[in-house]
Design goal:
The chain is mostly helical. The chain contains four helices and no strands. The radius of gyration is 20 Å and the shape is elongated.
Length: 81
């Protein structure tokens, strides 16, 4: 699990705070909202990548240009997770 520190305007938070029973409820709601945004973002990126996928011959040419230390097995395994 990753942890990030986010900063919000105090005036904004004071306006929304009464909508929640306590700080824990607000933190849970914020985390859920961020997760939804990230899932939507990933979906948008994948659909964009699929539409703009280079042809097989173009992808194969890129193999010779992989950075030093690139792990092909790890890359392929991550595609099928």
């Amino acid at each position: 699990m990753c942890t990030y520190t986010l900063t919000f305007d105090d005036k904004l938070m004071e306006k929304v705070r009464p909508s929640f029973a306590n700080d824990t409820a607000m933190k849970t709601w914020l985390q859920n909202q961020i997760e939804v945004l990230l899932i939507q973002y990933i979906g948008d990126v994948k659909s964009y990548a699929q539409k703009n996928q280079p042809k097989l011959s173009e992808r194969l040419r890129g193999i010779g240009k992989a950075p030093e230390g690139f792990d092909y097995k790890k890359e392929l395994a991550s595609r099928f997770e």
